[in-house]
Amino acid sequence: MSQKSRPAVARLLLVDDDRHLLECMGEWLCEQGYEVFLARQAAEALVIAERQRPELALVDLRLGPDNGMDLLRQLRQAVPATTVLMMTGYGGPDTAVEALQYGAFDLLTKPLLDDELLAALERARNQQQVLAENENLRVQLDQRVGLDHIIGTDPRMKRTFEIIESIADSRATVLVTGESGTGKSLLARAIHRRSSRRNGPFVEVACGALTENLLESELFGHVAGAFTGATANRDGKFKLADGGTIFLDEIATASPAMQVKLLRVLQELEFEQVGGSKTIRVNTRIVLATNEDLAAAVTAGRFREDLYYRVNIINLQVPPLRERTTDIPALANHFLAEVCRDTGRKFDGFDHSAMQLLQEWRWPGNVRELQNAIERAVLLGKGPRVAAIDLPPTVQSGRGGLQPGGHPLPTSAPGPNSPPGSSRPSGPSSSRRPTLKEALEDPERQIILHSLRINNWSRTATAEELGINRTTLYKKMRKLGLDNQRLAWAD
Asked: Which of 97, 255, 351, 359 reaches 20 to 30 Å from 23, CA-CA?
């Protein structure tokens, strides 16, 4: 029974053992624009549902020898995308509660009024639309933070992807190691999105950005009166991540006292709030990250040996970008498409000299630095392709950059098209030598940028580390183009 003259509003399975009522209601629903399938028995209804996959099902609670509640459970299992509404002339509050517990969208009482029925069906369709939109958003999020968004053909990256697929659904603690900017946070999110916890929360904590007392409160929460300013109870990040994943970045910065507390949480998944005595248990997957050598930190006495063995169950080592240059073209084109989409600008790729410079630069800031270099090129470039002159001066210079820790890297090796004896890449930028001012600004900018990153963009801590006052640091940041917070590049 269907409406052929116009597109159906939705496909609807109508189930009732009263033939007269079934046919009359089916005819009326067809007039309202629905494509209707009729069934008088549970077995018949189940066969139709599996074959036709209707969006909606309207099922009577009493089906002669069959039980409508049993059919409801079968439909929810066989065709979970079908929204089921129950109808009855005998039900009470307990019946309604039971129907909703078994997955019914609504329970309608006979005799059904036309407006009441249409309104209930419309509500069910609206809910389906919301669920479909949510699923679409989830798919988009998977594309952004799932493995498909992590680009890498390097054998070590492929092995990392394989490990993630293998361990994503386990409860094992994962330690992600690698230099700043290599995408450790992205891997943590990929683990979460690939697991059965994907619908739970993903909570990220930058441990290095907080003092010991603040970190303890941030992780475990506190009770009212625990310290000055604690006017109310507050849940910590571990509690907020219950049923999901918590990502603890910069774990090597934790104090010895905090390391003891973390060891207990990792082993028992239980803790007490600051100032509280009640033990709280959580079901949380823990992923940690660091850009330090934890084994060396253990030897130096800065990191507990028992905690090290507890967090190092599964170690994902992310290689720096300079060690996987074959990934640079794919990453650069990916970021180019992403920035063009976000800004509405059009670029057809990179010219040869620009791509050569990208592959010869040592990328001390790793993937983050590459991403921001591409964004700069798109915003400042004239098109139609990204040229060498559009890239940051440091990349154009081809002088290699800084190692982690601020030490100069070796000059980039000559490119395949460079003249013999040349240590600079070919391209528009190599037509002149930099001035003394430019030559001095490049390493100064890199040193300040590196210090800002390791101090979580704290200008006070950076000025202290560099041995200059804050006013001088502010002036240098403005002069060197470092006053844009987007350069902070969260891992």
From this structure: 97
